[in-house]
Amino acid sequence: MIIIQLKGGLGNQMFQYALYRSLKKRGKEVKIDDKTGFVNDKLRIPVLSRWGVEYDKATDEEVINLTDSKMDLLSRIRRKLTGRKTYRIDEESGKFNPAILEKEDAYLVGYWQCEKYFDDKDVIRELREAFEKKPQELMSDASSWSTLQQIECCESVSLHVRRTDYVDEEHIHIHNICTEKYYKNAIDKIRKQYPSAVFFIFTDDKEWCREHFKGPNFIVVELEEGDGTDIAEMTLMSRCKHHIIANSSFSWWAAWLNDSPEKIVIAPQKWINDRDMDDIYTERMTKIAL
């Protein structure tokens, strides 16, 4: 059996689910542990159900067996004498590891942020069916519908700015902040090809964006807050014709869900500081320095 630990925010959970679908396609017995990865995460919860996605859930006993973590006295003594006989595999880097797709027994802990993990055509179709719902299935507030109408009526570009959780003490040494220069160069690049482009800004720091992106062709998107706001935002981003993404799995997926052959996707050249993330980039992306 293979168990994939679910953790992180929406975009990361989508990557983990994509690996789940890929392993299922290969005939593996696969389940998802949607408890353990959130025990010490006060900010996040499992959210794939907001897409209407279902998956086989691992039981506590199955997780314990694969990770050799029984807490009875005999098991604890055995581990001290002979070591832990665990099938846990922690992702060591952001590079694609093809061996993961060949495992028969494993407890997988990581983000698996590479489309090579799910490049099978049938798996891609399944993922699109899961995440490309009709807007009426995902959006109920008036502001989302108004924004969608604007997006569909112009040369729309989603521009993702992620700041607040990247600048806290815990993450600032890991994540690069996409600079104003990065966004300016990306905007200029798109404007050279599409002078009338309208930039729809999706952000967790609206005040900073209003200060740095001014003019009639910049729209800071504001949606009604609720449990489905993240899904509505990603749906709206994916409906834009082009994308300027942050170093974020959230905007990565928004750009991936847009399957238009005409799209432009611009991404930051440096993703994070503590690991090689070259395999997160797709062939459709143009990298620009921060």
From TrEMBL:
<dbReference type="GO" id="GO:0016020">
    <property type="term" value="C:membrane"/>
</dbReference>
<protein>
    <submittedName>
        <fullName>Glycosyl transferase family 11</fullName>
    </submittedName>
</protein>
<dbReference type="GO" id="GO:0008107">
    <property type="term" value="F:galactoside 2-alpha-L-fucosyltransferase activity"/>
</dbReference>
<dbReference type="InterPro" id="IPR002516">
    <property type="entry name" value="Glyco_trans_11"/>
</dbReference>
<dbReference type="GO" id="GO:0005975">
    <property type="term" value="P:carbohydrate metabolic process"/>
</dbReference>
<keyword id="KW-0808">Transferase</keyword>
<keyword id="KW-0328">Glycosyltransferase</keyword>
<dbReference type="Pfam" id="PF01531">
    <property type="entry name" value="Glyco_transf_11"/>
</dbReference>
